[in-house]
Amino acid sequence: MVATKRRLLPCLCLGLLGALCWVWVSCASSSSSSFSSSSPDVVDAGDLDAFQPQSALSDVGPSSFMSYRGPGNRDPRTGKELPVLLWWSAGLFPHFPGDTERIDCAKSSCMATSNRKVQYHKRTAAIIFYGTDFRAYQAPLPRPPHQTWALFHEESPMNNYVLSHAPGIRLFNYTATFSRGSDYPLTLQWLPSLSYLLQPAAVPLREKNLWRAKGLAPVLYMQSHCDVPSDRDRYVQELMKYIEVDSYGKCLNNKALPADLEDTATATGEESHFMSFVSRYKFHLALENGLCPDYMTEKLWRPLHQGCVPVYRGSSLVADWMPNDHAAVVVDDFSSPKDLADFLRHLDQNDEAYARYLEFKEPVHVTNTRLLEHLETREWGVNDMSKPNYLNGFECYVCDRENARLAAERAYRRAPLQALPPQPKMANNSHMGCPLPRPGYGDVQDLLPNDAWLQIWPQDYWQSLDQAEGLESLIRHNESDPSLLWQHIQNIAVRRARGKH
Q: If you write DSSP's letter for every residue of 322-391 in order, what string do you get?
């Protein structure tokens, strides 16, 4: 076998940080078949038929290739000429019915499909993955040189810590995540509009004080998902020593819900009766299940909508997105749960100081220009028929950029001296990277060895790094069997122990 081939997969470049190149880059490889630091034999591009016949698209049916052109798009090609985007997570395919559909985007058109038979088709330009479902040991291998990978991940970092490590996130060329640093940011996905924030308080302060006089605690806690990376229950348990907290969920439960509200699943929606009940509380403990810059959920936005004050821990950059500088109480601004409790008691006993936290309900007090500009300019909408939802929006983002990349490739092949090759593009930690989980209260070295949180989440975080490095190794070595992941992880560990990694 010749020593140099065009690889089916991305290779490690020799530049700074060993960053992964675009998937169509050619690299030199060794002819050694053993698993070592040198690359094994790779599969020729001509051997693609051994994996999947290029006629796979014929199985999706002729109706998929009707010549349809949507409004605002002048792409003259028929469906049989368009690049294909494959949604790897079929359950997330944003079209109905069927498994294949032509999409006409702002600048160009593509075929979108969830039919995995087209994985190795020459026109399948990109695979779109849903982050929660992405598993290193199930990755689609080998990775053809003409394909890019796109990541959609709006959920908690705890769902897949592989994506919080550099070797994991840099496998992707395009990203849509909760991070403002991603290509297609979903940062305010839980905030439908400015008017959502400006709705009058559901329960006026005067009425909240009456409920307090009847025995309602000043602080509400409503969680039934316990034992999470943020370790929020540990913090709340300490806070409860210094201020009264009514806890209705399964976590730290100390109070029963009214009989007609016993199904706490209603807390995931905005059922009016349930919302009326929780709006009676002055403060809502709004503690995310994972800590990461820009990761903010309904736990933050819903209390603001209702006219309650969120006591928040989650995004370390939450202040960047608040309507003004006194709309939420940020847990990490206080040195201890006791100091936080003292401050909450002060607000509870001082109507004027408390009311200041609700001033943003008047538009004149919404002073955060970043928030206003982001809501105005984001490409997707929530319950907004004038904009695409973020699934379809990201799909079109990938479509337009893949068409531009393919056009640049064609121009470069035709006239390499006159045209520039496509520029490398790869995600990095700013697109997703989340920190190592830390205890909700206290220092990690003070935890007992058999502490349940300690045995789960720090280990999960570092094991996810092993998996990210293992998958990167699989791709670098042009493996076609993802079950070899564990062998690659072991090999990396051995090389690291020998000081060679």
A: SSSTTSSEEGGGSSSHHHHHHHHHHHHT-HHHHHGGGGGGSGGG---HHHHHHHHH-S--SS-TTS--HH
* pLDDT for the residue numbered 73: 76
**CA atoms of 339 and 53, how far apart (whole Å):** 66
User: Residue 265 has what DSSP assignment?
Assistant: G
Residues of the chain falling short of pLDDT 50? 1-70
CATH homologous superfamily of 194-375 equals Glycosyl transferase family 10, C-terminal domain (3.40.50.11660)
**DSSP per residue over 46-93, as a string?**
GGGGGT--TTGGGGG-GGGG-----TT------GGGS-EEEESSGGG-
Q: What is the mean pLDDT of the chain?
A: 86
pLDDT for 315 equals: 97
266-322 confidence digits (pLDDT tens): 555 578 888 999 999 999 999 999 999 999 999 999 999 999 999 999 999 999 999
- Return residue ranges of the chain for CATH 3.40.50.11660: 194-375
DSSP-assigned letter for residue 12:
B
Instruction: Say how far apart CA 65 and CA 306 lie, in whole Å.
Output: 48
